[in-house]
Write a structure and sequence with these properties.
It is a single chain. The chain has one helix and 28 strands. A hairpin with a 4-residue loop joins strand 23 and strand 24. By secondary structure, the chain is mainly beta.
Length: about 350
């Protein structure tokens, strides 16, 4: 079992890397460019890109650490910040509803963008906190916001707190507090998955009242769940903070865990994506670049400074509908060309 003090210290160090990197531009010459500053900072889309999303019209949206959100429509970039009506300049979640409205989770609440203007939601509209760390949408069109104070669902007029059972787990060491929801996902079967800060994972089934709680005691890789992803084969992957990644087997209700011993370059997983043509899974690894998993071979391939990532603090990853893989790091935006990563600045190269 990990020692609580040691675990807490590691969490604090990683949190510092997440939230204050942009103020610390000293390059540590380790040969891996872990903290390498972006080339030509003024030309970068943003110094730190936390989320990448593609809307129904094909536009790419980049949620940043301090520049709000920017939209690339195939021709130019447009930035939206508090000046334009966005609720906060740190954007940690992006989803689109059936009407084409974009919902953005920020450090100042939730913003809904209808293509012209923003409507903002704060604690007055039911949010349990202004600090939003995840956004989700289910098949019914309900919007979910994971906050520092818990999980909230939009009912069409305001946000309503979604009750999560109070549980006690061994090795409960949250980064902030156990009410924080890092991630949500509705899978193909209609199950709602909720990843928390320190008390593990919850699965709510479509049958009312049917819920299951998972923790390290049940085989989950870590009680701090950072991201949840369902692949094309129906497997649910759970990325964690400091525990690597788990693959959930619904037939046995068990987990298969992967960590550094299996080829991951770090046990801190920020985001997961899938290549639709090949079925490869990509993991953005904080402090370790990105790792690609081949399900048929059961092995990982690491991509770091040698493959063009000048900063290994990668937090966001997306494959767009054309098959292009994008990642966002502490040195800006990068695009995968099949063998290596290319830094994409405001001037490109976009294709």
């Amino acid at each position: 079992m990990k020692k609580p003090y040691y675990h807490r210290q590691i969490c604090l160090l990683l949190l510092i890397g997440l939230t204050t990197y942009c103020n610390a531009q000293d390059s540590i010459k380790t040969g891996q460019a872990i903290y390498g500053p972006p080339a030509d900072p003024a030309l970068q889309v943003s110094e730190y890109i936390r989320r990448i999303y593609q809307d129904k019209n094909g536009n790419l949206w980049f949620g940043t650490n301090s520049d709000g959100v920017c939209r690339y429509d195939g021709q130019s970039l447009v930035y939206f910040t508090k000046k334009e009506g966005l609720s906060g300049n740190t954007v940690r979640g992006i989803v689109e509803d059936k009407k084409g409205n974009l919902w953005l989770g920020t450090d100042g609440g939730v913003s809904r963008y209808d293509g012209t203007s923003f409507t903002n939601f704060t604690e007055k509209e039911g949010l349990t906190s202004l600090g939003i760390w995840s956004m989700g949408i289910d098949k019914a069109g309900s919007i979910w916001a994971g906050t520092v104070g818990g999980l909230c669902r939009y009912d069409g007029a305001s946000f309503v707190r979604f009750p999560i059972p109070e549980v006690t787990v061994e090795n409960e060491v949250p980064v902030f507090n156990t009410r924080l929801v890092w991630s949500t996902l509705e899978d193909k079967k209609g199950n709602l998955w909720i990843g928390t800060d320190g008390i593990g994972l919850f699965k709510y089934e479509p049958v009312p009242g049917m819920s299951t709680h998972f923790s390290e005691k049940d085989g989950l890789c870590s009680n701090g769940v950072s991201c949840i992803f369902e692949d094309s084969r129906g497997a649910v992957w759970i990325g964690s903070r400091l525990g690597g990644v788990s693959r959930y087997d619904p037939s046995t209700n068990t987990f298969t865990n992967f960590g550094q011993k299996d080829g991951l370059t770090s046990d801190f997983i920020c985001a997961i994506a899938e290549e639709q043509k090949t079925g490869y899974l990509w993991f953005s690894v904080l402090g370790g670049g990105v790792c690609r998993y081949d399900p048929s071979a059961g092995s990982f391939t690491a991509f770091n400074a040698n493959e063009g990532l000048t900063n290994l603090y990668v937090q966001s990853i997306l494959e767009d509908r054309s098959g292009t893989l994008w990642v966002g790091s502490g040195a800006g935006l990068f695009r995968f060309n099949g063998t290596s990563f290319i830094n994409v600045t405001k001037n490109g190269p976009w294709k």
